[in-house]
Structures are given as C-alpha cells and as structure tokens.
Description:
Blueprint: H1 2-32, E1 46-50, E2 56-61, E3 69-71, E4 74-76, E5 85-89, E6 95-106, E7 109-119, E8 125-134, E9 137-146, H2 152-164, H3 169-180, E10 186-193, E11 199-204, E12 210-216, E13 222-227, E14 233-237
Antiparallel strand pairs: 1-2, 2-5, 3-4, 5-6, 6-7, 7-8, 8-9, 9-10, 10-11, 11-12, 12-13, 13-14
Amino acid sequence: MKSIERQLRYLKIYSVVLTIALITVGLGAFQSAPRRQHFAEVDIERVNIVEPDGKLVMTISDLAHAPDAVLGGKTAKRQGGNSPGFIFYNQQGDEDGGLYFHGGKNKDGSSAGGGLLFDQYQQDQTIGIQYGEENGRRSAAFHVWDRPDTPLVELMPKIDEVVKLPAGPQRDAAIKSLRDSGQLGAQRVFLGKNPDRSAALLLADSKGQPRLRASVDAAGNPKLEFLDDAGKVLYSLPPVKP
C-alpha cells in the first residue's frame, strides 16, 4: 500500500514539474516571437524609421517636427523652410530625397505645392515630380537636373556669400559666375504644364539654356523650336512668319 502511495506521490510531483516546464517553454516561445501590434487609429506627430543599429533611414512628420537638412554630417536650415512629409536618408545619414506638400490661404490669396524628389549623392535633387500653384496659376512637371561633382556642403559657403549680397549688378554677376561654372547645377529636362496652361517638353544644355522646345499652347496650337546657346530660335515648326 505504501508503495502505491509513494508511486502516486511521485506521479503528482512529475505532473506538476512537467506542467511548469511546458508553461515556461510556451511563454518563452511567445516572448521570442516577433511582436506586431495593430492599431485601428493613431495620432502621431513624427515617426523615425531606423535600422537595427539605430541609424535613421526615414522620417514622417508634421510641420512642427520636420527635421532640418543634413548633409556631410552637418545640419542646416532648409531653403524655403520645412514642410510636412517624408525625408529619406542614405547609409551615411545624409538626406537624399523626400516627399513634401503644403497649401492654404495667405494674404495674397492662396498657394499650394508638393513634390517627390531624389538627390544626387552629396548634392541637391537630380530628379523629381513637382506641383505648384499661386492664386490659380498652376504648374506641374517632371524635372531632371545636372549637379556638379563637388559636394554641396563644400559649395554652400560660396553660395551663401552670394545670396547675402544686396540686389544689383554685383549680385547678378556673382550668380552668373556660379551658374556658368556649373556650381549651381542646371535643369536639363522639363516635361509638364506651365502656369499659362501650355504643355511643354524642354531640353536644355549643361548650362541650363533651353535648346529644344516642343509645346502646345492653351488654345491647342503645337510648336517645335530649336534654339542656340543665347536663346535665339534657329528653326521652328511651323515656320515663323516673316
């Protein structure tokens, strides 16, 4: 009898130990599994997307929490101010593109705009889709820019000096010198709609001078023009009437 009771006691102890072990294994498996949470709705002012090592790769933010530009490891105020949207970063932590938008009424009427831009490595945007509007005059286009090989962070001191000059011949000449030397880059392709409601394809040379222009005006009249490096029309279809 005592032998049976002893066996039953051992069996109970074994059952308790086995139950505890199974619960421990189950909880461990649950905790080690990737956790995914579901939210029906959430209000948030900024989201930072990071790599496992904490390196920032993208931000999503409102206007108040929009980050300043980062280039060459340095932070600077963004020309034209910040906007709500997305900012993309490369593996070095430098900004390399983004999605922005804005719009509303102002003292002069209304304005709106937005764009999706991708930057050249260590430089400004090289390709993008942009929309802009001022009091009902709208433009929307695909753009391609040429950018110099020199990192933008090295060019910014020169550009800032020129921007600080008072408006006038000296400032205009300084800007022209930067542009002619290629330090400001140049728009090479425009494909879209202009504020005058014309649709156009514009191809420019390395200095940003239009050399080929195909357009259809607001009335539906098509035109094809070839231009020289000074902007003079060399050939036109239909031909320019004398």
